[in-house]
Every structure is written in structure tokens, then in C-alpha cells.
Design goal:
Layout lengths: L6 H23 L1 E6 L1 H10 L4 E4 L4 H11 L6 E5 L3 H12 L3 E4 L7 H13 L3 E5 L13 H9 L3 E8 L2 E3 L7 E3 L4 E6 L15 H23 L2
Helix pairs in contact: 1-4, 5-6
């Protein structure tokens, strides 16, 4: 006789419930003081075309918060999530809030992976958010996956970052940032970056360097905005 449920599945349900609760607490108590460069997001939203948000894994909580808010303006949002068991918990959370969980890795370069991403972006109009140094680092090193997707789909990459006035930092590879309740938050958005179709996959390093610099500069701008407020 089959079991009506599996113990591991219950664990994932509990974990996703707790994660949603933590996020709701932080999003409700923290105050987003300002969004730098929001004109770039507005331009992309007005175009009604998909784009590829890119930010560091460390800053997932409030960069994703900003993207979830854009769903109210019509953004069809997706998150590229690892196919691992831990990724299943994150997938449950994002789908509960109306986004699509895209199970896979931005570092996969196989024909099927690229075809799947092309369909998601070009045929379904979904904007796939990527933590561009994830899922395992090195921290703040831009990997080529988002650039390959941008070139294939001709959807621009949108660099993003955030800063918190007070936060905990986990002892993980990315020093994951958890803003403390009642912190002030600044979100920074940079100029969209497109990838020419003629650019060869074998020569992506300059584009990686440019995006890496753009995101790190946005981190500094967000932090400066907090200090000068």
C-alpha cells in the first residue's frame, strides 16, 4: 500500500512555509528608501519585452522583492533555480507568489538547455532572474550563462544590486545577506546591456567583466545612498 505522503516532501513543505514567513517579515518591516536607476526598469517595462535581471546571490532577498513588485505592472517573472533538493524549496516559494520556477543551471551550455531558455524568454515572454555568481560561486564573479541567454534571445541583461542599513551575513560562500527587521534598503538598477548576435561564445570574458563591474558599482552606489541619506 502506497503512503499518502512522503516524509521528505513534508520537510520541504515546512521549509518553504518558514522561508515564506521570513521573507514576508523582512519585506513588511524593512523600508525601501529609494530605487536608483528605476528609469531603466520603466523603459524595459514600457517595451513589454522580456529582459534578464542579473544580481549577486548574496543580495537575493531584496533584489527579488523589487522584481516581485514589478509583477503588479505586468512583468512575467521567472527565477532560474538549481535542480537540487534545496532548489525545490525555493521553487515552491516563487511559484506561490506567481513567478515561474525555471529548474536548471545558467552554466549549462547544451543544446537542450539553450532551446529551453529560448522558448521561455522568446515564446512565453518570461524574464528570467539570475544570480549571476551562483549557485556555488566564486562570489561576485559573473558567469557566462546569462550572457549566452541574452545573445540567444536578444533580451537585454539588467544589472541590479541593493544595500541594507543593518544586516546579518551568513558564513556561506557568498556571505548571504539577511537584512535585519526595520532596516532601510536601497535598490540600484543599472543600464541594460545587450549582446550582439555576432559575438562568439568563446570570447565572452570582456562582457562578463563589464557586467561584473556594473553590478559591483551598483552595490557601491546603493551603499553610498544609504550613508548620505
Amino acid at each position: 500500500m502506497r503512503r499518502l505522503f512522503r516524509q521528505p516532501d513534508i520537510g520541504k513543505q515546512v521549509a518553504s512555509f518558514l522561508l515564506k514567513g521570513l521573507l514576508k517579515l523582512l519585506w513588511a518591516t524593512c523600508r525601501v528608501k529609494t530605487v536608483l536607476g528605476k528609469e531603466y526598469t520603466e523603459q524595459l517595462m514600457q517595451s513589454e519585452k522580456p529582459f534578464i535581471p542579473c544580481y549577486w546571490h548574496q543580495q537575493h532577498i531584496f533584489c527579488s522583492y523589487y522584481l516581485f513588485q514589478l509583477q503588479k505592472q505586468g512583468l512575467k517573472l521567472g527565477f532560474l533555480i538549481s535542480p537540487s533538493a534545496d532548489g525545490e524549496i525555493a521553487a515552491r516559494v516563487v511559484t506561490a507568489w506567481g513567478a515561474q520556477a525555471i529548474r536548471g543551471s545558467a552554466t549549462r551550455t547544451g543544446a537542450k538547455a539553450m532551446r529551453d531558455m529560448y522558448n521561455i524568454v522568446c515564446k512565453e515572454g518570461i524574464s528570467p532572474a539570475t544570480t549571476s555568481d551562483g549557485p556555488q560561486g566564486p562570489a561576485q564573479k559573473f558567469k557566462p550563462g546569462a550572457i549566452m541567454i541574452a545573445q540567444l534571445t536578444q533580451a537585454p541583461m539588467l544589472p541590479m544590486a541593493c544595500a541594507a542599513s543593518s544586516a546579518w551575513y551568513l558564513k556561506s560562500w557568498d556571505r548571504f545577506m539577511i537584512p535585519k527587521p526595520f532596516s532601510r534598503i536601497v535598490i540600484a538598477v543599472g543600464e541594460p546591456q545587450s549582446v550582439d548576435k555576432s559575438q562568439g561564445f568563446e570570447n565572452l570574458q570582456p562582457l562578463q567583466d563589464n557586467m561584473e563591474t556594473a553590478i559591483n558599482d551598483l552595490m557601491s552606489q546603493a551603499q553610498d545612498a544609504l550613508l548620505n541619506a
